[in-house]
Amino acid sequence: xxxxxWELPYEKNALEPFISSRTxxxxxxxxxxxxxxxxxxxxxxxxxxxxxxxxxxxxxxxxPSRAVLFNNAAQVWNHSFFWRCMKPGGGGVPGGHxxxxxxxSFGGFEQFVEQFTKEALARFGSGWAWLVMRDKKLKxxxxxxADSPVARGIHTLFTVDLxxxxxxxxxxxxxxxxxxxxxxxxxxxxxVGSRLVE
Length: 198
Ligand code: MN
Fold this sequence. Notes:
This protein is mainly alpha-helical. It folds into 2 domains: 21-84, Helix Hairpins (Orthogonal Bundle), CATH 1.10.287; 96-197, Iron/manganese superoxide dismutase, C-terminal domain (minor pseudopilin epsh fold). The chain is built from 8 helices and 3 strands. The chain has a 3-stranded antiparallel β-sheet, with helices on both faces. Manganese (II) ion is lined by residues 27, 31, 79, 161, 163, 165-166. Manganese (II) ion binds at residues 27, 31, 79, 161, 163, 165-166.
């Protein structure tokens, strides 16, 4: 088994005007595809080649001799998850159990957006911002470069790509504007809610 081309669950222009089709052409067709190709190349003929991505990530994260494999495999997982966390016509204020947990954990949706944005802006350079579940509570965390909570067995509910390639064509250096547009207009809250575990 190898990593297959992961299919975008919507058209490339479906997230406009918040994320342009031009951004997705580069981000999905070039960056994401390159991580998939490199992961397959590095896995071929190794003892890890038939393992699921999550296992590969956990088995390579602390092994400097496999850093290139970890970085590429983690980027495949992170990107596939990132695309799934958004949908055309998404966003708005969530409802249901996820909304209750957001209120409980952050004091309300606006406070969640504010805290998520603050932490994502504080991540220096490339990385990812995450909503995760730890000890039955929602938490926000960020990771550097390809690093991923998944590699450390932490359950993820939502992510935003903080690499410049995710927003530079549409927002240039304005990471905050990209985060605000995404958090308010693109989040697939049904998907995020479906990630909740007891
Ligand atoms: Mn990316």
